[in-house]
Write a structure and sequence with these properties.
Blueprint lengths: L8 E2 L2 E2 L2 H12 L2 E3 L5 E3 L4 H10 L15 H21 L16 H12 L4 E6 L7 E6 L5 H18 L6 E3 L8 E3 L10 H19 L10
Antiparallel strand pairs: 1-2, 3-4, 5-6, 7-8
Helix pairs in contact: 1-5, 3-4, 3-5, 4-5
The structure holds zinc ion.
Zinc ion (ZN) binds next to loops.
Length: about 220
């Protein structure tokens, strides 16, 4: 379980720490397979970031007050994403990392420095609440009145820190299906692929591979 101090709230909604930490995975998978053998980026521009944030406004501190994201926020979120993906690559070892950015991972100490620096943009303070007939609840809330963009960046960084420190890290995998570049958290011990469609594609590819080997053909062999 996540310790209570990683709980964050947006507005008045109390969000589970697990849901919040999964924002880190959400951020990582904005780099995705484009369906044609390449890589698409949901955060390629500020419009993409605005759409991504709007879909998660309930989970993401600062989202409601943000207005239209500007270039500096886009750069901050993309920098954070490259830190998260670089540390995901470490987390999935000895398995291979996602192929999308395996060739341009950050040094781990730089990735960790970025995460911590982004989280430190907004200090938080614990707040106790104690409703009738309920146990006392502890939440960490942003202290002071930082700009919404800083709150959002810091919230994403805190989510990533919670994810990497929490139980999901050991269940993280890079999907090994052909062309897939997704990281995913295993829902059950035997899960191999991020989605059933990736599983089907991987099985078809293995089937063709076996067939080719049985016929003694190599790729490009006219008889195979
Ligand atoms: Zn996949």
């Amino acid at each position: 379980m996540y310790p209570p101090h990683v709980l964050m709230v947006a507005g008045d909604a109390t969000i589970s720490a697990m849901e919040t930490a999964r924002l880190a995975l959400d951020l990582a998978v904005t780099l995705r397979h484009d369906g044609h053998g390449g890589v698409a980026d949901d955060l390629a521009d500020t419009a993409g970031l605005a759409a991504w944030v709007a879909e998660r406004a309930a989970l993401l501190d600062g989202a409601q007050d943000l207005g239209t994201p500007d270039e500096s926020l886009l750069a901050a979120v993309r920098e954070l994403r490259s830190a998260v993906r670089s540390l995901f690559a470490r987390a999935v070892r000895p398995g291979p990392p996602s192929a999308a950015d395996a060739h341009r991972l950050l040094p781990e100490d730089e990735a960790i420095r970025r995460l911590n620096a982004a989280a430190a943009r907004v200090p938080t303070a614990p707040r106790l609440s104690w409703e009738p007939d309920a146990p006392p609840a502890l939440r960490d809330l942003p202290a002071g009145t930082p700009p919404a963009a800083d709150r959002l960046t810091a919230a994403l960084a805190r989510a990533a820190i919670s994810f990497l420190h929490g139980p999901d890290r050991e269940l993280l995998r890079a999907c090994p299906a052909p062309r897939c570049v997704r990281y995913f958290v295993k829902d059950h011990a035997r899960q191999e692929w991020c989605t059933p469609s990736c599983g089907n594609r991987a099985r078809v590819a293995r089937h063709h591979e076996r067939h080719r080997e049985q016929r003694g053909g190599a790729p490009g062999n006219p008889s195979g």
